[in-house]
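Sequence in, structure out. First:
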Amino acid sequence: MARATKVVIDGFTLHVGSDDGDEWVHARAKAVDEKIRDIRARSRTANSVELALMAAVNLAEELEHLRQDHQAMLERLERLNRRLSEAVSLDASAGH
């Protein structure tokens, strides 16, 4: 059962439900808070909603890049696995 952990992001106190524990939630909240601070430092807006939305878009973009990298690695591993299997089969059929 998810229990609520109290966090502060951009000065707002939130209670976040998670099964992953307080440390996990605090680390994620810190990452979001840091992203908002980074955007605030580079942006002209002080509107908390706009900052939160821009942080969400930035984090979604980072996540998508990681998903694409992960998929590319899985595909590379699959190709390497096929090549290794073919090499082992050839070696076995050659009588070694």
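Second:
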Amino acid sequence: MDPNIQPDFDIMFISEVYPNSPADCLNSAISIPITQTYYNCFLLSDPDNIERVTKESYNALRTLPFYQSRVQCDIERVTNDACFCPSGFTGALCGEAAFSKCYVNMTNPAMYKGCREDKVDSDFYVYSI
């Protein structure tokens, strides 16, 4: 692989939100410490601009010849406080309602029977619940 040709590879960056204090956690969530592995990389031409990347991107940046001579990467273990959300909430600060599934049994008209003689079957019907 030619080290002067940039490979067709998308570098995936990570940006996360953490609470500044336990009071930032919403909906009765509690703040707990979590330890993560950070994969930090920077261009040798711009050492002050450190970016956090995914593990897959880190591995590619360390092994692809084009990046080996242009990028420096390090691994760091970091402990941050994170919000532990109660049931029904999600998001970095537990401020979003969690997705919930519901199933509807349509009985009139019986949707499972499809459209027969009295109604024309069409992609243009829109059903709303």
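Remark: Helices lie at 55-63, 65-68.
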